């Protein structure tokens, strides 16, 4: 989401004559786009600001000026406190207001500015469209905010209430992206499958229906969406995984924990069983679907037995990948006041066990794809010369020796080797296809 937001900010600023530079030295403006999801991310903001102010001081010494801005969810949550703690910051603005950047910059020339408004409905209308090429695989925001209020999470407070963009606005932006050469679109939203945008007739449209409309766009080859909530995996969306071949066989569906007691305390509104049932239903319509998830260990009150229930869910699902975190108390969230704090060393030990299991599953998943020929989308140059980096339908990263002219193309690649986080493969030529046929 922050990658997408940063890009949008760059688009707004392009209208004022700004363009992105590779290093902060000598820049006219620096924007630190921040994340508030866990304490670690928030802490980084202030150490990073300390580092970045050197560039501002250097520029001022040389007689120039540099606007220093803090954007994103830490800006939203901490607002004035950032101005107090970081005296060099000129401008603080939350995720609801980056379309107002031109006015804010003008103001920031004379005074220090804080903008933490939530005019979400105007935001997308006021943002410039995607005129430049976004690359072969790009994000498209369709939904923002969250009404779920999981007790550990700051998102409903920093990103505000759920809002879905109108269907036509999404389709128009997708078409523009495809015209610019994009072949794969990942639909974005904090709670993307709660999407309920209106179509031109004023009817509410679900994410499953939106995906079906997007699938009709010529030249758009692959569709993904993230992040989803189990409670919003409706039948239409599950069925879409079986019937829409452009919808990739990969789904990031966070479960957070495997114990129903913990899930209840988290206000997740689902049980371990209902989560597993959804995955069974998905695998019925799309047997090869690869699953991914988020986990939190050490939520207040989590016992060893509760944690074991999380491990059990992982064993049952067999993930393609997963992200796991130690619970981090966030200011203003209900869980921050809950009893039963789990000791730091216990959290660390549980996280290690969980990550070991997840890593084993990821490697096993990757190994299972060795020998298969998969259509991969070449997204960028690889780390080594003569190599390109691509993504398989299962969202695996694959390095392939290939000519640069294949960038942006979807090509059959035979998987030759599997590692923990990536694959190696080779382009299948027609000759090879004939031989193996
Ligand atoms: N502590 C730890 N992890 C968290 N996440 C969200 N809030 C917290 C928190 N307070 C994790 C969840 C979520 C992911 C984006 O970050 O797993 O799905
Ligand atoms: Fe946070 Fe996701 Fe829960 Fe919303 S559904 S409160 S974004 S964890």
List bound small molecules: 5'-deoxyadenosine, iron/sulfur cluster
Continuous helix count? 15
Q: What global shape is seen?
A: globular
Mean pLDDT: 94
SS-derived structural category: alpha/beta
Alpha-carbon distance between the termini? 43 Å
Output the strand order for the largest sheet: 15-16-17-19-18
Radius of gyration: 23 Å
Describe the fold and architecture.
This protein has 437 residues and is of the alpha/beta class. The chain is built from 15 helices and 19 strands. The strands form six sheets. Strands 15-16-17-19-18 form a five-stranded mixed beta barrel. A four-stranded parallel beta sheet has the order 1-2-3-4, with helices on both faces. The chain has a three-stranded parallel beta sheet with strand order 5-8-11, covered by helices on one side. A hairpin with a 5-residue loop joins strand 9 and strand 10. Helix 10 runs parallel beside helix 12. It is globular, with a radius of gyration of 23 Å. The two termini are 43 Å apart.
What are the salient characteristics of this protein?
19 strands, alpha/beta, binds iron/sulfur cluster, binds 5'-deoxyadenosine, 437 residues, 15 helices
In short:
This protein has helices at 2-14, 39-61, 72-78, 80-85, 101-108, 120-126, 155-158, 167-179, 207-215, 235-243, 260-265, 272-285, 304-317, 344-368, 430-436, and strands spanning 29-34, 67-71, 91-93, 113-115, 137-141, 143-144, 163-164, 184-188, 196-198, 204-206, 222-226, 250-252, 290-297, 321-326, 373-381, 387-391, 397-401, 410-418, 422-427. By secondary structure, the protein is α/β, with parallel strands linked by helices.
